[in-house]
Each structure stands twice: as structure tokens, then as C-alpha cells.
Design goal:
The chain has one helix and 18 strands. The protein is mostly beta strands. It has an eight-stranded parallel beta sheet with strand order 2-18-14-11-8-5-3-4. A four-stranded parallel beta sheet has the order 6-9-12-15, with no helix packed on it. It has a four-stranded parallel beta sheet with strand order 7-10-13-16. The protein is globular and about 45 Å long. It starts with a strand and ends with a strand. The N terminus is likely disordered.
Length: 172
């Protein structure tokens, strides 16, 4: 797999969300208010509603992680969407729902930013994040391809289906 224009940066002591992250138009939270528009209790519903250039703020859960046990990845298929940790760093995991070789989060569109969101997948399942789009930025995030007790892991923290341009990974 060939990458064009990859930038990798790290700063000592950088943690949490980016102070320059834009204010979200959509909120994912375990404490959704029925009176508030654009609030969701799961990431998949927020992604389904997001329009181009939307910012989706994902709040950490008070206990545990956002688990998506569907048989398909969480697909970011609308261009220029930002997924940002909101009021902390949320964790997205999958159990056995996503099949081997797939990703928990699949970035399909161009111009996607993942900022301050941790993503974990078991080692025998696939990639934490799969990148099919160009001009993708991943910052202030942890992508974890957790250990497998079978020793037969596939994938990795970050996977690519083909040549990519404009990939930036910083402060992770």
C-alpha cells in the first residue's frame, strides 16, 4: 500500500482533546435529552444524520465504552465530517460483531477528522480504523489493536485499502 503526503507529528505531554476543535452540531451522549435536537445515544445514528462539514461531539460514558456489536463497521461516509471527543476522551470498542478483516470505524469519505477519540478492536477481528478516503486527519487519539489470546491476529490499529493522499497523524 502506497501513501502519499503522510505527516506524523508528536508533542510531549499532549493529551485529551484539541483546544482548537470546533463546537459540535451533533452530540452523542449517554444522557440524551428528548427536548434537544441533534442529540443521539449512539454513534451510528449521529453518523447517519450528519451532513457534510458536520462536527459530531462524542462524550465519554461515565462507565465503560461505546460498544458497537453490529456486523458492519461504523462508516463515516459523508465528506468533511469531524468526530471529536467532547468533554473528555470517549472510547469506541467492538466485540465479536465486526467480522475478521473489517474495522470498528471505517473512514470512507474524504476530509474526515478524528480528534480525541480512542478506538479499540480485538486482534483477531481487523483494524481499529480503516481509511478509504483521502485528506484524513487523526489527532489526539489512541487506536488499539488489542492482544489476541489465539495468536492469530489480523489487521492493525490503522488499515488502508489502497493508495492514500493527504493523511495526517499527529499527537497520538
Amino acid at each position: 500500500i502506497l501513501l502519499d503526503s503522510v505527516t506524523i507529528r508528536a508533542e510531549a505531554g499532549s493529551v485529551g482533546n484539541s483546544p482548537s476543535a470546533p463546537e459540535p452540531q451533533y452530540i452523542v451522549s449517554e444522557s440524551v435529552s428528548a427536548d434537544e435536537p441533534n442529540q443521539f445515544n449512539n454513534i451510528r445514528d449521529a453518523l447517519d444524520q450528519a451532513s457534510e462539514e458536520a462536527v459530531i461531539g462524542i462524550e465519554p460514558k461515565s462507565e465503560g465504552t461505546y460498544r458497537d456489536d453490529a456486523s458492519t463497521p461504523l462508516a463515516v461516509s459523508t465528506a468533511n465530517v469531524t468526530l471529536v471527543g467532547y468533554n473528555g476522551t470517549p472510547e469506541i470498542k467492538t466485540s465479536d460483531g465486526v467480522g475478521g478483516g473489517q474495522s470498528v470505524l471505517e473512514i470512507e469519505a474524504d476530509g474526515i477528522t478524528l480528534d480525541g477519540v480512542d478506538v479499540t478492536i480485538p486482534a483477531d477481528r481487523g483494524n481499529a480504523v480503516g481509511v478509504a478516503g483521502n485528506d484524513v486527519t487523526i489527532r489526539n487519539s489512541t487506536l488499539d489493536h488489542a492482544g489476541s489470546d489465539t495468536g492469530s491476529g489480523t489487521g492493525g490499529p490503522l488499515g488502508f485499502g489502497s493508495e492514500k493522499t493527504g493523511l495526517t497523524v499527529e499527537n497520538n
